[in-house]
Model the fold of this input.
Amino acid sequence: ETGVTQSPTHLIKTRGQQVTLRCSSQSGHNTVSWYQQALGQGPQFIFQYYREEENGRGNFPPRFSGLQFPNYSSELNVNALELDDSALYLCASSFGIPTGNEQFFGPGTRLTVL
Amino acid sequence: KQEVTQIPAALSVPEGENLVLNCSFTDSAIYNLQWFRQDPGKGLTSLLLIQSSQREQTSGRLNASLDKSSGRSTLYIAASQPGDSATYLCAVRRRDDKIIFGKGTRLHILP
Done:
């Protein structure tokens, strides 16, 4: 059984560019959630995908978008990057909604926007 | 709106001491509460998960308690070691399945 993986581990972009982050969920999981963690803060919920449909969204602008694929892996896309988008982006996978089943976190992608 | 607060924001204690980290939350309608450890620049490591029907969970030197009615949880670390130095995050799972995190407590164990 493989855990949650994320790619890339680090990424440097310039303001105005677009970025795609990827997450492979743990085997058997069909739900993926994305979080943004700014320096010195706790992670903030961005959105969740369940069986390829968005299932809830946090307080993030529309330039943050996502996809979930039939194999339940997921992408987070951010358009028109801003300096404040610099953060650690975490994804977490679980089974089913809303069940309270434990979410398992990946190692994160560190995004730096210059 | 669920808010999670962790006190203190930072803590330094000598090696070998027992310590308690505190977490409070405003809405008791939760599925569970989870404690995580985060090393600098790294992802989250799950330490303990307490379901809403449970009062505590233990793993090795760690013990977490949950008092849902008062909106409080504590993480007790026994016989602290320098390797315990990290940021500890408390997170509650709302009934809509979203996880709300506190800002964490930065723990430094002095050798």
